[in-house]
Amino acid sequence: MSESSAKRNAVIELLRISPVADELARMFSEAGHRLYLVGGSVRDAMLGRLSDEAGDLDFTTDARPEQVLRLVRGWADAIWETGVEFGTVALTRRGTQMEITTFRADRYDRIGRHPEVVFGDSISDDLLRRDFTVNAMAIDLVSKSFVDPHGGLRALSTGVLETPAAPDESFADDPLRMLRAARFTAQLGFTAQQRVVDAMTEMAGQIDRISAERVQAELSKLMTGEHPRRGVELMVDTGIAEYVLPEVPGMRLAIDEHHQHKDVYQHSLTVLDQAVELERKHEPVSEPDLVLRLAALLHDIGKPATRKFEPGGGVSFHHHEVVGARMARKRLRKLRYSKEIISDVSQLVFLHLRFHGYGKGEWTDSAVRRYVTDAGELLPRLHKLVRADCTTRNKRKAAALQRSYDDLEERIARIRAEEDLAKVRPDLDGNEIIELLGIEPGPMVGKAWKHLKDVRLDRGPLDRDEAIAELYRWAADQGLR
Predict the structure, then answer these.
(1) Which of 111, 149, 244, 323 is deepest in the core (most CB within 10 A)?
(2) Which residues are in coiled coils (predicted)?
(3) Structural domain of residue 235, as residue ranges?
(4) Mean of pLDDT values over 368-388
């Protein structure tokens, strides 16, 4: 397909999916203003990645914010004016979310990342200030023409990530763009232009100007992209990771205990790749799983701190899962992740090594129950993480590990069929414990409840007489009888 045909098809496709854009353009044209569709929807239309619903739409215009507000009042279903001082009016129409921003020609103090808002007068100047050429394309909705002054379409066709302005100027204005470069590498599979890589390497420390919340948002988009490994590698190679996830480049210091990989860092990237592949093989195909992918990347971050060289040339990393879980929790907390994500990722890191004690099926049913209970709702993710962590190049050993895990999953299914492992509870509840022991509600009741739950996990269900006898034995040991 020729370049002109691609542009024409993108315009047609966007207007077909988003008829509200055409309506909006007529309103602006009749008022003597220009209106352009910009941003990710234009890029994705060129890539053929648009769904049947275009989703959020971004526009830019020569109309000033107060003029935009006058035009859309009565037409929009809802309007938000919170961004008006920055030139942006947000609105919805028939379920389509839109933002209309006046041409910008901002100036930055290069200390923070908040610009002195200056409105511009031309689309070319507005596009020049955007982050990458693939995002610096526009559709003139009045003339139905394609605007591409910086070669964005060419960059799309060659898979190159380039900045419209000089990258050092662009990144000095907004350092978050360096992390966005890694994110687009992960999302689109692009390769950053060498001058972009050089600028990122030289200016990596300026990421510290960006709030943790903004960094976290970009990192999450990177990790849930099609090619998260590529984004991580770009962060590490340029030094950005030293300010975002320093534990990841830190893994290059350690040698994998199996001596099968260049280092723990490369092993972790392989585990990340394999976790993504397991997501894709899942039926139905699951959405990108941020928790699983973070756990895959971070599961061995405790190894450098626990590395010990053994006699004879061996290397050990005893309790690296305990140290790694603590490190993961600390890092994710600094990145302002939610308590749920922090808890889930750190628990997966803590549990990822548990399976290696399974051997060829030596675990008792009690150990299987504990594995399931400790994982809780994370068990499906733990299954994927453990399988992804089997990265040995020895095909016979790899097959044996997968067979062992198949056997473990079969045993879990069998025990679940016999017992409801998701609802494992002691055979006596708190009220019965209070009545049988004649004690007041308090910590001792909780201790008795926990003891009976441990017995339940070890021995399976008890009948009532057995449970009462066990409670009395425990109470006698505690001096309660």
Answers:
(1) 244
(2) 398-425
(3) 159-244
(4) 92
